[in-house]
Amino acid sequence: MWNALKQQDGATLFDELNNLGFETLELSRHLTPDQVEQLKPYLRENPPCSIHNFCPILPGTSQVEAEQDKILLSSLNTDERLEAVRRTLQTMELAVELEVPIVVLHLGEVDTYDRSYLMRDLYNYGEREFEAFDQKVTEATEWRKRKETRHQDAVLRSLDELNEFALKMELYIAIENRPHYYQIPNFDEVGLFFEEFYGSPMRYWHDIGHAALQEKLGVCWADRWLEQYAEHLIGVNLHDLQELKAYHPPGTGDLEWDELFKQIPADVLKVLEIRPCEAEPVVEARELCDSLSQSNKLPDV
């Protein structure tokens, strides 16, 4: 994610990150087919730790648009949902080719009017602790509930197919918590999906920044996700928040990383997911997270 847009040559992209001290990479949704092909010779010697669906970017989608899900595993349109399953399977096939053990999934969203801007405006005006803020959060989540059941059912159908493929391919598929209240899964839906597919190759992928953003906007306490779904946890995305802006290098924003690392199991995969910026804060973030991760492994004295 950090340099996929600024380094169009896959070899240069790999070398740049390798020179910053990263031995293992995650393949992001922002990579083009050409970049993936150029990366393959390097990745066969250094298999990625994980890959974000969809990778490479979908046909007709620019790298800038890649973060916006154009087709959804939660779609009520059967053709669109099946196309999302098919494209996810292509990402899973790439994972098998490159010996990547984990494919991280975005499950989609509930088709409801997005009221996030109201919560953001109240937060930015310093209204976070007032009744009006809680009222807007309640209104938004109640509107979501009116439409969520059919989208949950669509996700269950998609996951049923993908879990079957993952089992045959010997892959883990990891469902990720998302930043917005209307996206899937919300806190309760993670439990719903694991109850349905307990014992499957499905796991939970926790995004620190997404959870923190939901807490800032009054949707869900950030620490609940890790507490509730620890047994399913396979990986964590690490990035900082500056107010409501995500994907900053850890240590450059509002989050307390020493406390966060106490909540993350030592054996869980940890991936820095950082927006384009200068190299120095990326190196400092890697060193910070390395240090905290090592401290977390030390026995209590």
Keywords:
301 residues; alpha/beta; TIM Barrel; seven-stranded parallel sheet; two-stranded antiparallel sheet; 10 helices; globular
Q: What does this protein structure show overall?
A:
There is one protein chain. Helices cover 48% and strands 12% of the residues. It contains ten helices and nine strands. The protein has a single domain, classed as Divalent-metal-dependent TIM barrel enzymes (TIM Barrel). The protein is an alpha/beta fold and 301 residues long. It has a seven-stranded parallel sheet with strand order 1-2-3-4-5-6-9. A two-stranded antiparallel sheet has the order 7-8.
Question: What topology emerges from the helices and strands here?
Answer:
Layout: H1 10-19, E1 26-27, H2 33-45, E2 50-52, H3 78-97, E3 102-105, H4 116-124, H5 131-169, E4 172-176, H6 187-196, E5 202-207, H7 208-216, H8 222-228, E6 233-238, E7 240-242, E8 245-248, H9 257-263, E9 269-272, H10 279-297
Parallel strand pairs: 1-2, 2-3, 3-4, 4-5, 5-6, 6-9
Antiparallel strand pairs: 7-8
Q: In angstroms, what is the radius of gyration?
A: 19 Å
CATH topology-level name: TIM Barrel
User: Which consecutive residue ranges, at least 5 long each, have pLDDT under 50?
Assistant: none
Average pLDDT level: 92
Q: Biggest β-sheet: count, sense, barrel? A: 7 strands, parallel
Strand content: 5-15%
Shape: globular
Q: What's the total number of strands? A: 9
Q: Give the full name of the CATH homologous superfamily.
A: Divalent-metal-dependent TIM barrel enzymes
Q: If helices are DSSP runs of H or I spanning 4 or more residues, what is the number of helices?
A: 10
Task: Give the number of domains.
Answer: 1
Spatial arrangement of strands, main beta sheet: 1-2-3-4-5-6-9
Q: How far is it from the N-terminal to the C-terminal residue, by CA?
A: 39 Å
